[in-house]
Write a structure and sequence with these properties.
By secondary structure, this protein is mainly α.
């Protein structure tokens, strides 16, 4: 068995904490840390799989770096409002090389793709982690002085397609999709395009929205995500988003791989 010293974490029980925490309670009130004895008392089987399969095996698999596994896992947890696991995984992400600025951008990005409430909940939890580690992002500019270059041809094609299909349905959604997402959010330099795509694909799978994956998985691979990394992303998500959501996404991944000539 591989060494678990870097990944020993408090095994969380199933909590019912909602995304809006009562003002009288701290985020820490929702993050108990039962020891191994307590976990085995409640569910020896869960303790076994958590310790041996998830910590001891999954996080050490080749194909996806520990840093990328942290990005995938955080994206899934925030998307699903699984707040009990977030303090540990924010800390693990920092230990795995995700920078405070990148965590800030991940939350910002997920606010657009999973809902504003998820973003505000994640901010409250990450604030506690930052306080404990002496991190302060307040000096970061809210808007970058220089954005990443835009692929004008690809954006024009995307915009024309969305305008044609949905311009009469919701002009506001179409406008913000262009102005806020693809001409602003996606061009922020605080998160590399490949990592921003990884966040998006992970969130879509975790949300059970495979119909959106084709576009974003192709974009991720255009941005540098390899077939092996995409495949291993699904393996990580099977544990953190659940097998049914991953099996719903598998045909989409297969189709994208085939369309790019990457079938086995």
């Amino acid at each position: 068995m591989r060494s678990k010293s870097l990944y020993v974490f408090p095994l969380m029980g199933l909590l019912t904490a909602c995304s809006q925490l009562p003002e009288s309670q701290s985020v820490r009130d929702y993050t108990p840390a039962p020891d191994a004895t307590e976990m085995k008392r409640v569910s020896p089987a869960f303790a076994h799989y958590s310790d041996d399969m998830v910590i001891g095996d999954l996080w050490h698999r080749a194909g996806l770096s520990p840093r990328d596994r942290s990005i995938v896992t955080l994206s899934a947890l925030i998307t699903q409002q699984q707040v009990a696991e977030l303090p540990y995984h924010f800390n693990l992400a920092l230990d795995n090389g995700v920078t405070p600025n990148e965590l800030s951008e991940i939350i910002t990005h997920l606010a657009f793709y999973t809902g504003w409430g998820n973003g505000t909940t994640a901010v409250a939890i990450l604030n506690d982690v930052f306080e404990e580690r002496g991190i302060d992002n307040s000096s970061l500019p809210s808007e970058p002085t220089q954005r990443l270059p835009l692929n004008e041809e690809a954006e024009a094609t995307r915009k024309a397609l969305v305008d044609e299909r949905f311009g009469d349905v919701s002009p506001g959604v179409v406008q913000y999709t262009t102005d806020a997402l693809f001409r602003d959010l996606w061009l922020r330099p605080g998160l590399a395009p490949r990592d921003r795509s990884l966040v998006t694909v992970s969130a879509l799978v975790a949300a059970g929205q495979p119909e959106q994956v084709t576009f974003h998985l192709n974009r991720a691979m255009d941005n540098g995500l390899t077939k092996e990394e995409a495949s291993e992303t699904l393996t990580q998500l099977a544990f953190y988003a659940g097998w049914p959501k991953v099996f719903s996404a598998l045909p989409v991944f297969k189709s994208v791989f085939e369309s790019r000539g990457l079938e086995s």
